[in-house]
Amino acid sequence: MTKNALAWIWIVCVLVRMEFLGVDGTCASGETGNTPGARYVLIWADEFNVDGPVCEENWFHQTQIPTPTGWYNNEEQHYTDRLDNSHVHDGLLTIVAKKEKFMDQGLERSYTSARLNSKFAFTYGRVDVRARLDGGSGTWPAIWMLGRNVQEPGGYWYSMFGNQTWPYCGEIDVMEHFGPRNDVISGSAHSPSRYGGNANTKTRILKDFNTTFHKYSIIWDERKIMFMVDDVPYYAYEPSIRDSSTWPFDKPHYLLLNFALGGEGGSVPSDFEQATMDIDYVRVYQKDPLIPAPSAPMHATLKSRAIRNTPTSIFLVIVALGAAFVRAQAVELSFVSRVMAGRFNSLSRQRQIKNRLLTK
Q1: Which of 261-270, 303-312, 335-344 bottoms out in mean pLDDT, i.e. has the lowest?
Q2: Helix (H, G, I), strand (E, B), or coil: what is residue 148?
Q3: Of 172, 160, 128, 130, residue with least CA distance to 60
Q4: φ and ψ at 357, to 5 degrees?
Q5: Known catalytic residue: 176?
Q6: Cβ atoms of 147 and 153 closer than 8 Å
Q7: From 31, 171, 222, 332, the catalytic residue
Q8: N- to C-terminal Cα distance for the chain?
Q9: Catalytic residue among 57, 76, 176, 332
Q10: Residue 343: predicted pLDDT
Q11: What pTM did the predictor assign?
Protein backbone atom coordinates (compact mmCIF):
# COMPACT_ATOMS: atom_id res chain seq x y z
CA MET A 1 0.00 0.00 0.00
CA THR A 2 1.46 3.40 -1.00
CA LYS A 3 2.18 6.23 1.41
CA ASN A 4 -0.49 8.45 -0.25
CA ALA A 5 -3.13 5.74 0.16
CA LEU A 6 -2.29 5.44 3.85
CA ALA A 7 -2.55 9.21 4.27
CA TRP A 8 -6.01 9.35 2.61
CA ILE A 9 -7.28 6.45 4.74
CA TRP A 10 -6.21 8.40 7.82
CA ILE A 11 -8.07 11.52 6.57
CA VAL A 12 -11.27 9.55 5.98
CA CYS A 13 -11.05 8.05 9.47
CA VAL A 14 -10.75 11.54 11.00
CA LEU A 15 -13.73 12.86 9.01
CA VAL A 16 -15.89 9.85 9.87
CA ARG A 17 -15.06 10.31 13.54
CA MET A 18 -16.04 14.00 13.32
CA GLU A 19 -19.35 13.19 11.65
CA PHE A 20 -20.51 10.44 13.97
CA LEU A 21 -19.16 11.75 17.26
CA GLY A 22 -20.06 15.40 16.62
CA VAL A 23 -16.57 16.70 17.25
CA ASP A 24 -17.39 20.32 16.57
CA GLY A 25 -17.33 21.78 20.07
CA THR A 26 -20.91 23.10 19.83
CA CYS A 27 -22.89 20.87 22.19
CA ALA A 28 -20.53 18.48 23.89
CA SER A 29 -23.12 17.75 26.59
CA GLY A 30 -25.82 16.81 24.08
CA GLU A 31 -28.08 19.76 24.85
CA THR A 32 -28.56 20.53 21.16
CA GLY A 33 -28.07 24.25 20.98
CA ASN A 34 -30.56 25.18 23.67
CA THR A 35 -28.42 27.93 25.14
CA PRO A 36 -28.87 31.33 23.52
CA GLY A 37 -26.75 31.32 20.39
CA ALA A 38 -25.49 33.89 17.94
CA ARG A 39 -28.96 34.59 16.51
CA TYR A 40 -30.51 35.32 19.92
CA VAL A 41 -30.19 38.82 21.34
CA LEU A 42 -31.16 39.94 24.82
CA ILE A 43 -34.15 42.27 24.53
CA TRP A 44 -35.33 42.60 28.15
CA ALA A 45 -33.93 41.60 31.53
CA ASP A 46 -33.88 42.28 35.23
CA GLU A 47 -30.72 41.24 37.10
CA PHE A 48 -32.03 42.52 40.46
CA ASN A 49 -28.85 44.41 41.28
CA VAL A 50 -30.36 47.33 43.24
CA ASP A 51 -31.47 46.66 46.82
CA GLY A 52 -34.96 47.71 47.87
CA PRO A 53 -38.32 47.40 46.11
CA VAL A 54 -38.58 45.86 42.66
CA CYS A 55 -37.88 48.17 39.74
CA GLU A 56 -41.09 50.08 38.94
CA GLU A 57 -40.02 50.44 35.30
CA ASN A 58 -40.07 46.64 34.95
CA TRP A 59 -42.75 45.33 37.33
CA PHE A 60 -46.29 46.03 38.46
CA HIS A 61 -47.71 44.74 41.75
CA GLN A 62 -51.04 43.07 41.04
CA THR A 63 -53.01 43.41 44.28
CA GLN A 64 -56.64 43.94 43.22
CA ILE A 65 -58.88 40.99 44.09
CA PRO A 66 -60.43 39.81 40.77
CA THR A 67 -63.60 38.27 42.26
CA PRO A 68 -65.84 39.17 45.22
CA THR A 69 -64.61 36.10 47.12
CA GLY A 70 -60.90 36.53 46.48
CA TRP A 71 -58.34 35.10 44.11
CA TYR A 72 -58.90 32.40 41.51
CA ASN A 73 -58.30 28.69 42.20
CA ASN A 74 -59.27 29.03 45.89
CA GLU A 75 -55.98 30.72 46.75
CA GLU A 76 -55.91 31.87 50.37
CA GLN A 77 -53.58 34.88 50.35
CA HIS A 78 -53.75 38.60 49.71
CA TYR A 79 -51.14 39.95 47.31
CA THR A 80 -49.49 43.17 48.49
CA ASP A 81 -46.92 45.71 47.28
CA ARG A 82 -45.10 45.78 50.63
CA LEU A 83 -41.40 45.09 51.08
CA ASP A 84 -42.44 42.36 53.53
CA ASN A 85 -43.68 40.34 50.55
CA SER A 86 -41.26 41.28 47.78
CA HIS A 87 -37.86 42.92 47.86
CA VAL A 88 -34.42 42.91 46.24
CA HIS A 89 -31.31 42.19 48.29
CA ASP A 90 -27.81 40.95 47.44
CA GLY A 91 -28.68 40.44 43.78
CA LEU A 92 -31.86 38.44 44.40
CA LEU A 93 -35.55 39.18 44.15
CA THR A 94 -37.29 37.43 47.04
CA ILE A 95 -41.04 36.84 47.08
CA VAL A 96 -42.24 36.00 50.59
CA ALA A 97 -45.49 34.17 51.31
CA LYS A 98 -46.15 34.51 55.01
CA LYS A 99 -48.72 33.86 57.69
CA GLU A 100 -50.38 37.01 59.02
CA LYS A 101 -53.88 38.42 59.39
CA PHE A 102 -54.38 41.01 56.68
CA MET A 103 -57.45 43.05 55.76
CA ASP A 104 -57.69 44.50 52.25
CA GLN A 105 -60.58 45.46 49.96
CA GLY A 106 -63.08 44.43 52.63
CA LEU A 107 -61.75 40.87 52.86
CA GLU A 108 -59.59 39.41 55.63
CA ARG A 109 -57.04 36.72 54.82
CA SER A 110 -54.60 34.75 56.94
CA TYR A 111 -51.68 34.98 54.51
CA THR A 112 -49.92 37.54 52.31
CA SER A 113 -47.62 37.25 49.31
CA ALA A 114 -46.72 39.08 46.07
CA ARG A 115 -47.74 38.77 42.42
CA LEU A 116 -45.68 40.70 39.86
CA ASN A 117 -46.64 41.50 36.24
CA SER A 118 -43.91 42.48 33.80
CA LYS A 119 -44.42 45.83 32.07
CA PHE A 120 -43.05 44.18 28.97
CA ALA A 121 -44.88 41.90 26.54
CA PHE A 122 -43.53 40.06 23.51
CA THR A 123 -44.33 37.40 20.93
CA TYR A 124 -41.89 34.51 20.47
CA GLY A 125 -38.47 34.18 21.98
CA ARG A 126 -36.62 32.54 24.81
CA VAL A 127 -37.22 33.10 28.52
CA ASP A 128 -34.64 32.22 31.19
CA VAL A 129 -35.39 32.57 34.91
CA ARG A 130 -32.87 31.33 37.47
CA ALA A 131 -34.60 30.60 40.75
CA ARG A 132 -34.72 28.65 44.00
CA LEU A 133 -38.05 28.01 45.71
CA ASP A 134 -39.44 26.61 48.92
CA GLY A 135 -41.91 23.75 48.86
CA GLY A 136 -44.17 21.94 51.26
CA SER A 137 -47.88 21.44 51.57
CA GLY A 138 -49.95 24.50 50.72
CA THR A 139 -47.27 26.22 48.59
CA TRP A 140 -47.64 27.11 44.91
CA PRO A 141 -44.79 29.22 43.48
CA ALA A 142 -44.90 29.92 39.74
CA ILE A 143 -43.03 31.54 36.86
CA TRP A 144 -45.52 31.94 34.06
CA MET A 145 -47.03 34.00 31.23
CA LEU A 146 -50.45 35.23 30.16
CA GLY A 147 -51.68 36.73 26.92
CA ARG A 148 -51.57 40.51 27.14
CA ASN A 149 -55.25 40.55 26.10
CA VAL A 150 -56.46 38.68 29.20
CA GLN A 151 -59.59 40.06 30.87
CA GLU A 152 -58.27 40.13 34.42
CA PRO A 153 -59.31 43.19 36.46
CA GLY A 154 -56.36 44.65 38.31
CA GLY A 155 -53.74 43.30 35.92
CA TYR A 156 -51.25 45.72 34.41
CA TRP A 157 -52.40 45.25 30.80
CA TYR A 158 -56.15 44.91 31.47
CA SER A 159 -57.21 48.51 30.80
CA MET A 160 -55.20 48.68 27.57
CA PHE A 161 -55.75 45.30 25.91
CA GLY A 162 -58.03 43.12 28.03
CA ASN A 163 -60.63 41.64 25.67
CA GLN A 164 -60.22 37.86 26.04
CA THR A 165 -61.22 35.62 28.89
CA TRP A 166 -59.00 32.85 30.12
CA PRO A 167 -58.00 30.40 28.57
CA TYR A 168 -58.68 32.08 25.19
CA CYS A 169 -55.86 34.52 25.96
CA GLY A 170 -53.38 31.65 26.36
CA GLU A 171 -51.22 30.73 29.35
CA ILE A 172 -47.65 29.39 29.39
CA ASP A 173 -46.37 28.02 32.70
CA VAL A 174 -42.59 28.20 32.50
CA MET A 175 -42.39 26.55 35.93
CA GLU A 176 -44.91 25.60 38.58
CA HIS A 177 -44.41 23.71 41.81
CA PHE A 178 -47.38 22.26 43.67
CA GLY A 179 -46.81 21.63 47.37
CA PRO A 180 -48.24 18.09 47.57
CA ARG A 181 -45.75 16.91 44.91
CA ASN A 182 -42.65 17.95 46.77
CA ASP A 183 -39.97 16.84 44.28
CA VAL A 184 -41.77 17.72 41.04
CA ILE A 185 -41.92 20.81 38.85
CA SER A 186 -44.06 21.15 35.73
CA GLY A 187 -44.38 23.11 32.49
CA SER A 188 -47.73 23.66 30.81
CA ALA A 189 -49.54 25.33 27.91
CA HIS A 190 -53.20 26.24 28.50
CA SER A 191 -55.34 26.75 25.40
CA PRO A 192 -59.11 26.67 24.71
CA SER A 193 -58.75 23.04 23.63
CA ARG A 194 -57.01 21.93 26.85
CA TYR A 195 -56.70 23.90 30.05
CA GLY A 196 -56.78 23.72 33.83
CA GLY A 197 -56.48 20.14 35.07
CA ASN A 198 -56.51 18.95 31.45
CA ALA A 199 -53.78 21.30 30.19
CA ASN A 200 -50.97 20.31 27.86
CA THR A 201 -48.38 19.57 30.51
CA LYS A 202 -45.47 17.45 31.64
CA THR A 203 -43.65 17.10 34.94
CA ARG A 204 -40.00 16.66 35.81
CA ILE A 205 -38.44 15.23 38.97
CA LEU A 206 -36.22 17.85 40.59
CA LYS A 207 -35.34 16.83 44.13
CA ASP A 208 -33.13 19.84 44.96
CA PHE A 209 -35.41 22.63 43.72
CA ASN A 210 -35.55 24.05 47.26
CA THR A 211 -31.79 24.06 47.93
CA THR A 212 -30.27 24.78 44.50
CA PHE A 213 -30.79 27.50 41.92
CA HIS A 214 -31.99 26.12 38.57
CA LYS A 215 -32.59 27.84 35.25
CA TYR A 216 -36.20 27.44 34.11
CA SER A 217 -36.67 28.22 30.43
CA ILE A 218 -38.91 28.11 27.40
CA ILE A 219 -38.17 28.54 23.71
CA TRP A 220 -41.33 29.76 22.01
CA ASP A 221 -41.66 30.10 18.26
CA GLU A 222 -44.35 29.94 15.56
CA ARG A 223 -44.66 26.14 15.84
CA LYS A 224 -43.94 25.00 19.36
CA ILE A 225 -43.11 25.81 22.96
CA MET A 226 -40.11 23.96 24.40
CA PHE A 227 -39.82 23.62 28.20
CA MET A 228 -36.39 23.19 29.79
CA VAL A 229 -34.56 22.98 33.10
CA ASP A 230 -30.88 23.97 33.06
CA ASP A 231 -30.96 23.98 29.23
CA VAL A 232 -32.18 20.37 29.06
CA PRO A 233 -35.59 19.94 27.34
CA TYR A 234 -38.24 17.80 29.01
CA TYR A 235 -41.42 18.74 27.11
CA ALA A 236 -42.49 20.32 23.82
CA TYR A 237 -46.00 21.51 23.06
CA GLU A 238 -46.29 21.32 19.27
CA PRO A 239 -49.86 20.78 18.05
CA SER A 240 -50.24 19.35 14.55
CA ILE A 241 -53.09 21.79 13.92
CA ARG A 242 -52.52 25.35 15.07
CA ASP A 243 -55.74 27.35 15.24
CA SER A 244 -57.54 29.56 17.76
CA SER A 245 -58.40 26.47 19.82
CA THR A 246 -54.93 24.97 20.10
CA TRP A 247 -52.66 27.96 19.50
CA PRO A 248 -53.55 31.27 21.20
CA PHE A 249 -49.78 31.78 21.37
CA ASP A 250 -49.37 34.02 18.32
CA LYS A 251 -49.96 37.22 20.28
CA PRO A 252 -47.95 39.15 22.91
CA HIS A 253 -47.62 37.58 26.36
CA TYR A 254 -46.23 39.04 29.58
CA LEU A 255 -44.44 37.47 32.54
CA LEU A 256 -45.78 36.81 36.03
CA LEU A 257 -43.91 35.89 39.20
CA ASN A 258 -45.95 34.89 42.23
CA PHE A 259 -46.13 32.64 45.27
CA ALA A 260 -49.66 31.47 46.00
CA LEU A 261 -50.88 29.58 49.05
CA GLY A 262 -53.66 27.00 49.11
CA GLY A 263 -55.66 26.13 46.01
CA GLU A 264 -53.68 23.79 43.77
CA GLY A 265 -50.89 23.92 46.35
CA GLY A 266 -53.01 21.94 48.79
CA SER A 267 -54.06 22.75 52.32
CA VAL A 268 -51.83 25.12 54.23
CA PRO A 269 -50.75 23.40 57.47
CA SER A 270 -51.50 25.12 60.77
CA ASP A 271 -47.80 25.40 61.64
CA PHE A 272 -46.90 27.22 58.40
CA GLU A 273 -45.01 30.48 58.95
CA GLN A 274 -43.49 31.54 55.64
CA ALA A 275 -42.00 30.33 52.35
CA THR A 276 -39.94 32.13 49.73
CA MET A 277 -38.97 32.10 46.05
CA ASP A 278 -35.57 33.64 45.28
CA ILE A 279 -34.93 34.81 41.71
CA ASP A 280 -31.45 35.57 40.45
CA TYR A 281 -32.46 36.99 37.06
CA VAL A 282 -35.16 37.16 34.40
CA ARG A 283 -33.95 37.34 30.77
CA VAL A 284 -35.85 37.45 27.50
CA TYR A 285 -34.18 36.82 24.14
CA GLN A 286 -35.40 37.00 20.57
CA LYS A 287 -33.89 35.99 17.26
CA ASP A 288 -32.36 38.88 15.35
CA PRO A 289 -33.80 38.81 11.79
CA LEU A 290 -30.67 40.57 10.51
CA ILE A 291 -28.44 37.67 11.56
CA PRO A 292 -28.62 34.85 8.99
CA ALA A 293 -29.63 31.40 10.10
CA PRO A 294 -26.96 28.67 10.14
CA SER A 295 -26.61 26.50 7.03
CA ALA A 296 -27.98 23.52 8.94
CA PRO A 297 -31.47 23.87 10.51
CA MET A 298 -31.26 24.49 14.25
CA HIS A 299 -34.32 22.56 15.43
CA ALA A 300 -34.29 22.23 19.21
CA THR A 301 -35.51 18.66 19.67
CA LEU A 302 -35.97 16.53 22.73
CA LYS A 303 -33.57 13.90 21.38
CA SER A 304 -31.02 14.91 18.81
CA ARG A 305 -27.32 14.88 18.13
CA ALA A 306 -25.01 17.86 18.45
CA ILE A 307 -25.72 20.58 15.91
CA ARG A 308 -22.98 21.01 13.34
CA ASN A 309 -21.19 24.34 13.40
CA THR A 310 -20.12 24.90 9.79
CA PRO A 311 -17.12 27.21 10.38
CA THR A 312 -15.83 24.95 13.16
CA SER A 313 -16.22 21.85 11.00
CA ILE A 314 -14.36 23.50 8.11
CA PHE A 315 -11.58 24.47 10.48
CA LEU A 316 -11.33 20.92 11.78
CA VAL A 317 -11.24 19.53 8.23
CA ILE A 318 -8.33 21.87 7.44
CA VAL A 319 -6.56 20.76 10.61
CA ALA A 320 -7.15 17.13 9.66
CA LEU A 321 -5.78 17.68 6.15
CA GLY A 322 -2.77 19.50 7.54
CA ALA A 323 -2.12 16.74 10.03
CA ALA A 324 -2.46 14.18 7.25
CA PHE A 325 0.08 16.05 5.15
CA VAL A 326 2.53 16.16 8.05
CA ARG A 327 1.91 12.49 8.71
CA ALA A 328 2.52 11.68 5.03
CA GLN A 329 5.74 13.69 5.08
CA ALA A 330 6.82 11.88 8.22
CA VAL A 331 6.08 8.54 6.54
CA GLU A 332 8.14 9.61 3.51
CA LEU A 333 11.06 10.82 5.65
CA SER A 334 10.95 7.63 7.65
CA PHE A 335 10.99 5.61 4.42
CA VAL A 336 13.95 7.58 3.04
CA SER A 337 15.77 7.24 6.33
CA ARG A 338 15.33 3.48 6.29
CA VAL A 339 16.59 3.27 2.70
CA MET A 340 19.60 5.44 3.45
CA ALA A 341 20.32 3.47 6.59
CA GLY A 342 20.13 0.25 4.57
CA ARG A 343 22.52 1.60 1.93
CA PHE A 344 24.93 2.81 4.61
CA ASN A 345 24.88 -0.59 6.31
CA SER A 346 25.47 -2.27 2.95
CA LEU A 347 28.50 -0.06 2.17
CA SER A 348 29.96 -0.65 5.63
CA ARG A 349 29.66 -4.37 5.17
CA GLN A 350 31.37 -4.19 1.75
CA ARG A 351 34.29 -2.20 3.26
CA GLN A 352 34.65 -4.76 6.07
CA ILE A 353 34.87 -7.62 3.55
CA LYS A 354 37.39 -5.72 1.41
CA ASN A 355 39.62 -4.94 4.40
CA ARG A 356 39.49 -8.56 5.48
CA LEU A 357 40.66 -9.71 2.03
CA LEU A 358 43.55 -7.18 1.97
CA THR A 359 44.91 -8.37 5.32
CA LYS A 360 45.18 -11.96 4.19
Answers
A1: 303-312
A2: coil
A3: 160
A4: -65, -35
A5: yes
A6: no
A7: 171
A8: 47
A9: 176
A10: 45
A11: 0.73
